[in-house]
Design a protein that fits this description.
By secondary structure, the chain is an alpha/beta fold. Helices cover about 40% and strands about 20% of the residues. It contains twelve helices and 20 strands. The strands form six sheets. Strands 1, 2, 3, 6, 7, 15 and 16 form a seven-stranded mixed sheet that branches. Strands 4-11-12-13 form a four-stranded mixed sheet, with no helix packed on it. α1 (about 5-20) packs antiparallel against α12 (about 390-405), α4 runs parallel beside α5 (about 105-125) and α7 (about 210-220) crosses α9 (about 315-325).
Length: about 400
């Protein structure tokens, strides 16, 4: 056991450098990623809510409109939303129905329901519909190439961006003609999700995801307005840069203030507006906004978020679109902050052998608490998130080592 403060400080340096390296590797990296989500949700936020409202298909909605929905159910959403003149309407669901499947009474009414849905889609200013990329059932058969929106201004290495060979599911053609298609693929649903894909590849060509299409609709842009540098950023019409990783994913800021209301609440508010009576939800949460219709019922909330939270694909997309609207791009703290943390821990390691065990334990606990408070302040000021694994690991190491080591002689 090291009984000298100098020797212990050197050992703290070595442990700190190891923690600093391991914190950037999986699976330890997930600890710092979860801490970043904690900071985004709990730090003081001064910004106004972004112009996005998530319209929830929740358990209450499904009592009157059982899942799976018919075209008439979706038509009811577009009809109610159009009354408030939103800037854009979107759903991550695929609007496609098999005329030969389902109940016999529904088969007879499907053409009529689809006509009603198409009429309401035509009345909307801009519409974004979900679709899915995938692979053919028989890899020996090459499916026909389909027309998709392509991003052509591309530089850098995009080999890590997931590639697909077919369009697995998309809205029926009569709905696509009056809307924009966005691909909703998520690469790995088994791990905790902190990022969302902005780029995907279809037959070697780069295509925008559902979230990036939502931004382009909101900003009134085309794929030609995007310039991609693989593993670095997406430049949006020379206005701002979106940081992305090698897989074309963007870090989501889950703490951006945004609106949400239930599907039934929206329908009721529409009826109240038609009757010239006060609405049950504030009109500013709907008028001129981006409205995203998505499931949030218990069955759909199968994605793993930070701190044991679960959510649906729609909730993840809502947070990602809000991140883009607010330009709330999170950045990891620079390396010098981590070296400064190691230096402070080395100072603590210098004195630790001379202090009592209870005093060292208390100092480590207080140090971590102060670190978290500083991290929240730094995040609030600059959207820079400081890692937790390094200070927590050093504090645990110092406290544990001191508990099992003898005290240093006076003057050591």
């Amino acid at each position: 056991m090291f009984r000298s403060g100098a020797h212990f400080a050197i050992l703290v340096l070595v442990i700190g450098l190891v923690l600093m390296r391991e914190a950037r590797q999986e699976p330890v990296r997930q600890i710092d990623e979860a801490f970043a989500d904690f900071l985004s949700r709990n730090s003081h936020r001064s910004e106004e809510p972004v112009p996005l409202t998530l319209v929830e298909i929740n358990e209450a909605s499904m009592k009157g409109h059982p899942w799976p929905w018919t075209p008439l159910d979706f038509a009811l959403f577009f009809q109610a939303a159009n009354n408030f003149e939103p800037d854009a309407l979107a759903t991550d669901e695929v609007l496609r129905w098999d005329d030969r499947a389902g109940r016999a009474d529904l088969q007879n009414k499907l053409p009529q329901y689809k006509t009603i849905l198409r009429e309401h889609l035509l009345r909307a200013r801009r519409v974004l519909l979900g679709a899915q990329l995938g692979f053919p059932a028989d890899p020996e058969i090459i499916p026909p190439l389909e027309e998709v929106p392509l991003v052509r201004n591309v530089r850098g290495d995009l080999s890590a961006v997931p590639e697909f060979t077919t369009i697995k599911a998309q809205a029926e053609e009569e709905f696509r003609l009056s809307s924009t298609t966005g691909f909703t693929n998520l690469i790995d649903k088994t791990r905790a999700l902190h990022s969302v894909p902005l780029l995907l590849r279809y037959r070697g060509q780069v295509v925008p995801s559902f979230v990036l299409q939502a931004l382009m609709i909101w900003e009134k842009l085309t794929p030609d307005d995007l310039q991609i540098v693989g593993g670095e950023h997406i430049r949006v019409a020379d206005r701002f840069d979106i940081p992305i990783d090698a897989r074309g994913e963007m870090r989501v800021d889950f703490g951006v203030p945004r609106g949400r209301c239930g599907f039934d609440e929206l329908v009721l508010a529409s009826a109240q507006a038609d009757a010239k009576t006060p609405t049950n939800i504030p009109l500013e949460t709907i008028n001129g906004r981006f409205l995203l219709l998505a499931r949030t019922d218990a069955e759909s909330r199968n994605l793993h978020f930070a701190a044991g939270r679960h959510g649906s694909v729609g909730e993840l997309f809502a947070a990602a679109i809000a991140t883009l609207q607010s330009r709330s791009f999170l950045h990891r703290a620079p390396a010098w902050m981590e070296f400064a943390t190691i230096a402070l821990a080395m100072l603590g390691g210098w004195f630790a052998p001379r202090w009592s065990r209870s005093r060292v334990f208390a100092a480590c606990a207080v140090g971590v608490i102060i670190y978290v408070m500083v991290a929240m302040s730094v995040f609030s000021a600059s959207l820079t998130w400081m890692p937790l694994m390094l200070p927590a690991g050093l504090a645990l190491f110092i406290a544990t080592y001191r508990m099992v080591s003898p005290s240093a002689p006076r003057g050591a």
